[in-house]
Amino acid sequence: MKYFSLKTHRFLFTISFLFSFLTMFSQQNNGKIKGTITTSDGEAAAGVNVVLKNSKYWTITNDNGTFDFNRIKSNTYILQVSLAGYETIEREVIVADNETSELNLQLKVSNKELQEVVVNSKKSITSKKTDYVARMPLKNLENPQVYSVIHKELLLEQVAVDIKSAVQNSPGVVAISYPSGGVGMIFRGFSVGVNARNGMETVSGRSSVDLGNVERIEIMKGPSGTLFGSTVSSFGGVVNLVTKKPHETPANEISYTAGSFNLNRLTADVNTPLNADKTVLFRINLGVNREKSFLDYGFNNTILVAPSLTYKASDKLTLNFDAELYNVNNTRRTYNTYAATSGITNPTQLQINYKKSMFHDDNDAKTSATKVFAQAEYEISENWKSTTVFSFVGEDVERSYQSYAVWSSPTQAARRVGLWGPIYNNYTNIQENINGTFSTGSIKHKFLAGANYRLYSSNFSGGTTFTLDNIDVTTNFAPIRRKAVDAGLVLTSSPIADQKTLSVYACDVVNFTDRLSAMLSLRLDNFERAKVGTVEGYHQTALSPKLGLVYEVVKDQVSLFGNYMNGFQNMQPVTQPDASQLVLDPIYAVQYEGGIKAEAFNKKLTGSVSYYNITIDNATRLDGNGYTIQDGKQVSKGVEFEVISTPVNGLNIVAGYAYNDNRIVKATTNSNIEGNKATGAPENVANFWATYTFQDTLKGLGFGAGANYVDKNFFTADNTFYMPSYTVYNATVYYDKSSWRIGLKFNNLTNKKYWDFWGTSQAPANILANLTIKF
Questions:
Q1: HSE of 624 in the Cβ direction (CA atoms, 13 Å)?
Q2: What is the strand order of the sheet 100-106 is part of?
Q3: Which of 47, 354, 399, 496 is the 20 to 30 Å CA partner of 274?
Q4: Which string of b and e fits 251-271 if b means at least 16 CB within 10 Å?
Q5: What pLDDT is attached to residue 632?
């Protein structure tokens, strides 16, 4: 521990010295250019090329349509602005020392180009621009990691009202509903929650997520512990939500969605500058959701309040604040388990009516999530910046009645109920990142150095699970009421140990040429769990590397990549049957991956194909005498394919396919399962979605359709019980105008009966209708 502290002090001293040096360096006299570009309808224009002619300076506008050039030598320049489908603009701009020149430009539609290219203010669904995946501005073709980006524009096409339907647009990703009420995903053979929000730790295990404040969903594939740590990343990857941010253009939107099962959903998005010079920007997103279950009992009522504020304190310092308050009152779905002697191999054999619930509405849950985020971004110099982030996430459970059915035969089930709550889980993170670019001779570097301090605190109480009765589901049985449950509950509480983690990490993307680059990354985690009751605390240190190599075969269009990625989980010591203590090593997962990425035809086509192999060499297991041994092995390997395309005006296509073979290679305590498929790892998963919007006659009218296929996946390691494969078909029709939009979505067109990994039956055929007003 002393050695670790010395290394940490040296690291922080180095960062402090670097910060001071770069701050001093930045004081040289130079000017600055900044501006905002809007489209002809007044919307922010993202992805616009901005060039200072006859100089080395160029950039593109961000999602808010803004751009800036820093440390520009005093002179007179010609600034050129161009975007396909619009007329190119040129403006003279004079730069003086220690002054900022500001421009606000509006693009005009080019009649010539408009016949070939459709341009609007919405972000293209093919865009993979993000600063979160690599924690630095790194283009998709430069990044040796595979990731998907699901934009809100795609979710609007699909009238998506929940995150489970949203994430199915990423290859290999299958949504699951936790019995505790949260939501997670399975991909690359492993499950993960929605554990990142704007790149920082979040949680959704007991409260789920509302899409009302989501700008896009980023799904990073493969173990990502090096940059995100063990609590955010699973061995399959990371799911990161990017929230909506304030921007300079006033914009308001109200949306109402009604649908089957008494769905009524109202959302509002209000964005406005708070002062004349637009240095203080405010945005708030609101959402109210009311719906019944397709079962005869069950409901889901939620409220979302999400304000955000941006303050441009100076040319160098920008402050961002946002909060998210999410309240949920709903019923949890019943968790089914199956006795070994039941003869049941899959849920299609159960004789209960598909729409029948064994439990009443009053066995409900009431939870809330509070998420606070603050960021200070400081421009140290032209090539260096500091980003300081504070994040707090609290997930509170007032009560959560959770129901269980233990099946002894296809017609006989024991009904059980437990109570969870009050429970709270608090996650506090403070993070510092230094990003910059520099050169060593002809070799260019994109560099990141960061540190993160994490504090976790929790409290748990509730009522033990107990059996109320045994029923024949073919009879006219009554649903269990909460009054009967409360009469049999025995309340308990359990102390939870606080956890502290201090992490330092660094990443250097080395550009040997303009086509060949390497990523070198390393993370050091020091994990500390406090003593709780009679259980001693413990410390654990983990080292996590990440390496990658990229070669652009066709500059800015096609790249070959390979990576070595590492994930880890901290493991607490185990007390053995003879009272001895076994100190466990962190469990590591190592991935090797190679493939090809493309962004071709003026970015009308984005795609990737890759092969990966993920190995866990030191998984824990129990032997026949109850002793813990750390020598298990699991291998998950597969192929992923993704293509997102806008081949002709108005046509959008999203498609993906994933093959995964995740097997238990070694299990000494039960050699019978060696070679078996791991649980929750479907072998084949495919997704397809296409829409077409008319461009001339009936402009704005569109329609679309798609399908999702998920292979069978095993619920038990002995591979005797499984969830059947399924294909679900969906369709949409809409009319989208500049100030309003109406849409219809038809889900599960063939009325397919299917179940997720936890055995939760899914909604039959249903319809959604949406009206959106923009002003």
A1: 3
A2: 66-72, 31-38, 100-106
A3: 47
A4: bebebebebbeebebebbbeb
A5: 76
